[in-house]
Design brief:
Tetracycline Repressor, domain 2, elongated, mainly alpha, about 0% strand, DNA-binding, homodimer
DNA sequence: CCTACCGATCGGTAGG
DNA sequence: CCTACCGATCGGTAGG
């Protein structure tokens, strides 16, 4: 029966993620965020430095979560297919677990200040590299074939990221089921496997 | 040696697409657009009604192009695999042909006025339906299998749409090659087809 | 296409 | 956490 008490700062981050997602970073105002919390805009600045800080917290937090997950998958021993299924499953779970933050992470990162962008982009690249590593594993094991691995990784990530655009928490599929379907699709494609 | 003379309005639309893509619809100002054309912001209003009109032109024009393409594919007789390859190829070509407008169409449509959003969303759905139709065809021909067709369509569209995020006109792959690779990937997936 | 300008709203600060 | 406020900038209009 214990309700976790979020710090005021954490409440502000949560409210801003929701509004950044709904209206976009630029269109959502500090006054909107304050209103959502029932306080005045000026009061926000006792807890945060700037509007930019909110975007930074959201984007870098999501990046950290995803990177930790992919590193874990690559550290623990699995064969390549298991690794890929785990990586996709982790990604889907992280993203569906916080749709507001994920959407902002995926859509609004462009509005990070140039200096923060310079930190952010390498994190995204590192995440991509984690997937590339799995594909290389798979090729060595003779279970995957992908002529252009970078291309394959971008395609896989596009599919897992697009989930934020249509996923509904009360929909018919659980995150685990979505991840399973997606993995099957990525592994074997659309064509019938047993000739008709 | 003939240079096509664009109307001033068309120049404004082009400049706004570039800026909406770079900065986002809200962050790009009418003064930015005017500066790009070497005129004053107030002068823009001799050619357009409002900033919103610019976004509407960009979004609905892209929607029209894509819808025409998918209708054409479904009208002309092809088998399902050819249809899918053609639909993907058309999509990639339309999107890479105008990356500014495509990016705005894919990212900034949320900022359309509510009344325009109500027109826009059905167009996106109609486009999705065009792809669903191809998958149904394929199932009837016993060449495709997709337990959840809506899911498969969303995955396919995510892959073709993500192209705007990384495609570079001077890159190593032509739009046709990208479409070919993508179609192969979607049709057969990552797994090796001939057992090792 | 320009000058001159409008009211509204923005992110943020001072000072309590 | 609030009141009171700042300079800057926004989309857009009037009138030529």
């Amino acid at each position: 029966m214990e309700t976790v008490q979020l710090s005021r700062k954490e409440q502000i981050v949560l409210a801003s993620a929701k509004l950044f997602r709904e209206k976009g970073f630029e269109a959502a105002s500090m006054r909107d965020i304050a209103r959502a919390l029932g306080i005045e805009a000026a009061s926000l600045y006792s807890h945060i430095k700037s509007k930019d800080e909110l975007l930074e917290i959201i984007c870098f937090r999501m990046a950290d979560r995803l990177l930790k997950a992919i590193d874990e998958v690559n550290d623990i021993y699995f064969n390549a297919e298991e690794k890929l299924r785990m990586a996709i499953s982790n990604h889907v779970k992280i993203v569906t677990d916080d749709l507001d933050a994920s959407s902002v992470f995926l859509r609004e990162w462009r509005h990070l200040k140039p200096e923060k962008l310079k930190e952010f982009i390498p994190l995204r690249n590192k995440y991509e590299d984690g997937f590339t590593h799995i594909l290389v594993n798979g090729e060595n094991e003779n279970v995957f074939e992908a002529a252009d691995k970078k291309f394959a990784v971008l395609t896989i990530l596009s599919a897992v990221n697009w989930i934020t655009e249509w996923y509904q928490p009360n929909g018919s599929k659980s995150p685990g089921e979505i991840a399973g379907h997606l993995s099957d699709f990525i592994l074997t494609g659309l064509k019938v496997k047993t000739p008709a």
